[in-house]
TrEMBL record:
GO biological process: pentose catabolic process; pentose-phosphate shunt
Protein name: Ribulose-phosphate 3-epimerase
GO cellular component, one term: cytoplasm
Keyword DNA-binding: no
Lineage: Bacteria, Bacillati, Bacillota, Bacilli, Bacillales
Gene: rpe
Species of the source: Cohnella thailandensis
Family from the record: Belongs to the ribulose-phosphate 3-epimerase family.
Length: 219
């Protein structure tokens, strides 16, 4: 079953706790939390204190997507705030192998995100060390952007590489421009975890948005 992870970037920041609770009630599997530093990406969101503030509103795993430089400075505080998974950008890490292991040493699941232009080959020597690879299907920084179709062969290629190594437990997550149509395309290409911000939080009927994503991914 495909994992659906609503991105709270598109939620109402004035009532984040309630929007997180509602996502769980509407069938979400993970809560996707976008942390941006205004440096790695041209937008600024929030940090570990806000993650901690919404922790008690849901029992769903917190899937934290760090769009920040030197992400390792946030790991301990994010663990204390209740993060379950932490994904860093390959482009933001000089010592990616070390960074991934720092996440795992805290007992958290480690992911690596790739910007649209970043080749899969940066993962070649660390596929065995990660729990998740996040293929960005837009340029990170903002919600509501259009899906980049050239990412479909990249997802297929990654699925092939994971299968060839027998790494069936590594999630392929996609993030950006996911809706009823693109969900089917990325799932066919091999993605099994779908982030969606605008499509879910921009819809008055969030339960139906989530079930549409799940059904499209199955088709
Ligand atoms: C973009 C963020 C995404 C964003 C996706 O940089 O990483 O998680 O919220 O938004 P949509 O689904 O609206 O494209
Ligand atoms: Zn994200």
């Amino acid at each position: 079953m495909t994992i659906i992870a609503p991105s709270i970037l598109s939620a109402d920041f004035a009532k984040l706790g309630e929007d997180v609770r509602e996502a769980e009630r509407c069938g979400a599997d993970w809560i996707h939390i976008d942390i941006m530093d205004g440096q790695f990406v041209p937008n600024l969101t929030f940090g570990p204190p806000v993650v901690g503030a919404i922790r008690s509103y849901t029992s769903l795993p917190f899937d934290v997507h760090l769009m920040v430089n030197t992400p390792e400075r946030l790991f301990e505080d994010l663990k204390k705030a209740g993060a379950d998974r932490i994904t860093v950008h390959a482009e933001a890490c000089l010592h990616l192998h070390r960074t991934i292991h720092a996440i795992r040493e805290l007992g958290l699941k480690a992911g690596v995100a790739l910007n649209p232009h970043t080749p899969l080959s940066v993962l070649d020597h660390i596929l065995e060390d990660i729990d998740l690879a996040l293929i960005m299907t837009v340029n990170p920084g903002f919600g509501g952007q259009s899906f980049i179709p050239a990412m479909l062969p990249k997802i297929r290629d990654l699925r092939g590489r994971l299968d060839a190594k027998g790494l069936h437990g590594v999630h392929i997550e996609v993030d950006g421009g996911i809706n009823g149509e693109t969900a089917a395309l990325v799932a066919q290409a091999g993605a099994n975890a779908l982030v969606a911000g605008n499509y879910i939080y921009g819809n008055n009927d969030r339960a139906s948005a989530i079930s549409t994503l799940k059904n499209s991914a199955k088709a």
